[in-house]
Amino acid sequence: MTFAAMLQALKGQVETLDRRGNLDVSVSAITDDSRTVQAGSVFVAVKGEQTDGHAFIPIAVKGGVAAVVLQEPAMELPIPFARVADSRKALGLLANHFYGEPSSKIRMIGVTGTNGKTTTTYVCKTLLEALGRRVGLIGTVAYQIGDDTIPASHTTPGALELQELLAKMVAGGCTTAVMEVSSHALAQDRTSGCEYDVAVFSNLTQDHLDFHRTMEEYFLAKLRLFTGLTGTSKPNKRAIVNVDDPAGDRIKQLCPAPVWSYGLKAKADLRAEHVRLSLGGTTFTAATPAGSFSVESHLVGEHNVYNLLAAIGVALHEGATPDQVRQAVAHVTNVPGRFERVMAGQEFTVVVDYAHTEDALVRLLTAAQTLKAGRIITVFGCGGDRDRGKRPKMGMAAVRYSDVVILTSDNPRTEDPLSILQDVEAGVFEALKQRSQVLYRKVADRREAIGEAVREARSGDMVLIAGKGHEDYQIIGTKKYHFDDREVAREAIERRKTCA
Asked: What is the pTM of this model?
């Protein structure tokens, strides 16, 4: 491929301000990281949150790149270059073209929202595989291509990694890709060049305001997935939108593609009726455009009814029959770190969950309220270097719905753990004014906090360990240390049994 041919991918999408040098030079790779340059590659200089790729252009040139794409005014370069209005957006478009436009060759299902993305994508994958499809998965827990599983670097990977993953899915015989689409990825144009067939909206609650600044900016980032459903030649587009969430109504009005709404409260195209919740699972009647049918699932809690409805909508749109859906849903098992039970012969329930926002914590706790026999003991913390505004709100939620609250560290990153706990405590103390009977403790060491919760538990109690879910690490400073809530809880249970 020539540099000139690659630049054709930008036509009508990103303005090219200047071109110089021999544009017919052959290119064999594309990168935005000067550490990975090789002879014949194109280096795209992108301004990042921490570093500016333009500063590394000289290193890339020394590394033998064939051409450069940049955004800042052009410096004198001994190789061909193109200056564009937006190099970040250009990166996705160029990568899409370089890897053969993979998203145009498979069905693309994108799921966005504050909470529920991971479970919804896992259920979608199971339901679509029941149709005989080979399905790739991209999300928070892992990237899956057939039988190969790759640890996830981000919920939605960077533009280059994303297009390479999609190309591998096509080469591996996948007919469908199901992926979580984060607001960061949409705002940063990581999905530039992707052609989606179905877009799913789960909900919108406070998170990531350290990045988006306002809830409106956060919403507008999510909206881009839906407004982007037009403008391609792929047929049979649809949005599937939770209209029980106020933001869902706005998306429904602004989405240019056909919409199926879903919900429990509002009049929706897909509704769950006669819902029954238990610790063993969930049953309901799904009223859908394809008719009504019974649903039995191992997933627990009302929040998972929403996730199931969204996935059922995707499957029906993609051609599944109600019978196929009903049978496939029954085989869906728990998603890693999402209401995942730790069972080691104890007489109380221990659940590990990824809930790390106020809304997710409330959903987890209200689900526990409907299932509990005894007390709810909640262990949680808040991540450092992230949205501070949600910290006191999470503290209030924990006290409001728990009998015992143990506040601890999450991933403190470069913040002082005690400073993070102080922010959360503001909400804890406010809520304790109304619920003074709640037992509250602060244990900064997460391992000790989980151990204390296990020691506190009595027969019939439910211990909820929230915030990290599937993660098998803790970030302290800038380093990752092995830490898995599930392992730590199991060890604590075994110690308790030994000491009994």
From this structure: 0.89
